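debug: dumping io for the single-chain case to check the tokenizer round-trip. Nothing else runs in this session.
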Amino acid sequence: MESIRCRLKRSVFILVDPILVNPIRANLILAILISAALIALAAPAVAQSQAQSSTTTGTLRGQVTDPSGAVVANATVAILVSGGQTHSATTNRSGGYEIGNLAPGKYTVTANAQGFAVFVQNDVGVAAGQAAQFNISLDIKVQKERVNVQEETPQVDVNPASNASAIVLSGKDLEALPDDPDELQSDLEALAGPSAGPNGGQIYIDGFTAGQLPPKESIREIRINQNPFSAEYDSLGMGRIEILTKPGTDRYRGSVFFNDTDAMWDSRNPFASNKPAFSNRYFGANVGGPINHKTSFNFDINRRQIQDNAITNAFYVDPSSFNVTHLTNALVTPNYNTTITPRLDYQFTSNSTLTVRFEERFNEHDNAGYGRSALPPPYSVAGFPNAAGYNSTGDGQNLMVTETTIVTSHLVNETRFQFTRNFTQSLGNLIPTISVSGEFTAGGNSVGNKYDTGKHFELTNISTYVHGAHTFHLGARARREGDQNASPAGFNGSFSFQGGNEPVLNVANQIVYDSGGNEQITRLTSLQQYIRNLQLLQAGFSEAQVQTLGGGPSKFSIQAGQPYISMTRYDAGPFIQDDWRVRPNFTLSLGLRYEVQTLMSDHRDWAPRIGFAWAPGSAKNGRQKTVIRGGFGMFYNRTGFGPYENAMLNNGVRQLEYTVFNPAFYPNIPSLSTLNAGQNTTNIVDPKLKAYRSLQSAIGVERQLPWNTTVAVTYTNLRGNHLSQNVPINSPYPGTYNYLLGAPAPPTACFRMVTRPVTYTRPNPAAS
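debug: decoded output
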């Protein structure tokens, strides 16, 4: 899969449709381009590296932030040297700066930005042949109750995390986003754009892979599409959304909000005959501040009340007059969600901080199951109550703990732990379902009492070490996923009316024969077949006689056995990454990641990563105008519980499906011991199943244009291996299946089995 993607920052966004290119030729062209760029730079890079190893100068680099921890772009960092001269640099949009060619010694560092107080620090040491890390925190400058905020100017550089397609949202940019959580997530996914890979992009909350999108009031910053080929992440950075929440502050601050959407001013839905109440109310509050000189807090609570609608499009048959009515009713389906989120920040020492954030969620959904062809209340069919709807409830907890320690001026270590629990419950019933194909469904909802409990544990440790021109990132992430599920779907039984060729009846409900003594046949729709069933039952015929006269159900099916399943999965991913500033205008990123998980026997998932950024020509005023950026990486998708749980439940023993064609016991369900399970499908997982692997590469050009505009043209290529699929490997022998009538094979029939190295299906051995 290839695509060319163009983006004009702030002013214009261009997306060119994918072009069809031979994958082998495309990969060859891309490999030649990357190789040529690296070869052209190899000789001067080595010479420059050797020259730097013998130099007696050093480098000072770091990041400039505000009191809340948000980065400050376009800040001026200056160093006063002997003779009254200064060396200065301007921070990029990630707040980073770098000043080189400094003689070893102690310096006075100043920093200044619009709206902030001037920062001054004496005796900042710089060693020969090393890059000293010196981060700066600016205080807010208050003058005449007015704060001037300067708009960020987009620029390009060779920092691995400063690709032009990256977006950093904070301040007024964040305020412009929607307040509604669903709309906010949709807008963020639209800003991220289409991500390479089958699962799209990922959302990280404070560095964690699990959790719910927090309300906008508690978000400090959002980063999108940064550092696509970093080994720290298990997926491509294009489409990755990183959300950072607000910490506590040195002053008490709070806010209250209320958003209301009501259908009072809306027109009626043209597909519904009535106009029920509709509203979407979202309200909450946020407060934060200090507890003592080392501790601060932030507390957020919000609630959503959505009065949504379910629209029915079905045909109702009056059980006494047999008149047919077309129903287009809309029914209110309330949905309630409440979230409580406290956060605590504690500073152990000047170099060590602890952050604890907790989420408590409650949700409720009423009248689920209605809509489409399900008959709304109070309509019901003869002999069965209207029980298609059901209520769902759930709750969840999410604990996130982060500890950050600045070990030395060159080494920072961060440890993150997360525990997430999600519980959902649906209170259904085991009343049989009546399905008239294409017309309506009634009776029970086939859900039963369903519940699911998922538990997620995640532990991550990452160290960042700066040594000369190298910035190393190394660490590992380990996760445990647990699932406990009980789903008695289909355990209530279902009668299906599908229509077909049935005998013609006279006014006395007798079969009509032609002059040759043959039955006259007519084609009945599913609704006509159901109406004939009602008429014959009302006339006193038994169900066996009704079937003979062509009015009974076409099929009855029911699932029975064990509905409960429990499963656990572990996965881990250690990594190492080196961002090497080979030259001031050339950065090379080399990384390696290893992915491993249980449930499958494949444990050789190595994921190498490589990326480069080159700014040809000399920089003007410390800024580059053009950057050529490219990279390549292998990425693996974790395999979920679905195939394995399906194989455990449908193994020919735990759960069996009973199917009876043209049943003569409507509307009563007989004992399952009197039914024949027939040939149940057995699902198994191929022991050779491997994790899906994608080989992704990209190359592009970023250009700084006038009028605060940046343009980026990027070519991406994706090739996937080991895609899993469900394959029916059964090849029936001739005569074992009646294709004209759609009838199953006799119990004595055999099936041919073909083994494929994918997820596949086979028949029940006991029935073969």
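debug: round-trip ok. The longest helix spans residues 23-53.
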